[in-house]
Amino acid sequence: MQTGRTENDLVPTAPSLGTKEGYLTKQGGLVKTWKTRWFTLHRNELKYFKDQMSPEPIRILDLTECSAVQFDYSQERVNCFCLVFPFRTFYLCAKTGVEADEWIKILRWKLLRYLLGPVFPSNDKPVRTKSPVGYEAE
């Protein structure tokens, strides 16, 4: 047995289901430069920060206001996608196609959840939804 450790130290922790975080490159709004930012997705909020250690987000996007998430091939970059809001379209790029696909899948899943709301069958028992990776929702 290891000493100086608690039982919690020995159990690997997993991030909350339905959440995601990581670096994405974002196109600016007024000035169309590209900057790498740290993004966190939790519940209906997509936040971005200057970097992973920044305590306060630069902006918080409410996904209940987002109308679409889609791949974007109009940029001169690869692995890009966009989030369409009534006030602006945000262009984001991931390092890899797999990473871009993961972001798109979870963002679309979130949009669908907020669009449809909770689903109840005729017997009034809640239906468990699955996240893009097959886990139960938060």
Automatic annotation (TrEMBL):
SMART domains recorded for this chain?
PH (SM00233)
Against Gene3D superfamilies, the record matches this protein to: Pleckstrin-homology domain (PH domain)/Phosphotyrosine-binding domain (PTB)
List, alphabetically, the CDD domains matched.
PH_DAPP1
Can you give the residue ranges of the PH domain? 17-112
Q: Which InterPro entries has this protein been placed in?
A: PH-like_dom_sf, PH_domain, PI-Interact_SigTrans_Reg
| One Pfam family named in its UniProt record | PH
Protein name as it appears in the record = DAPP1
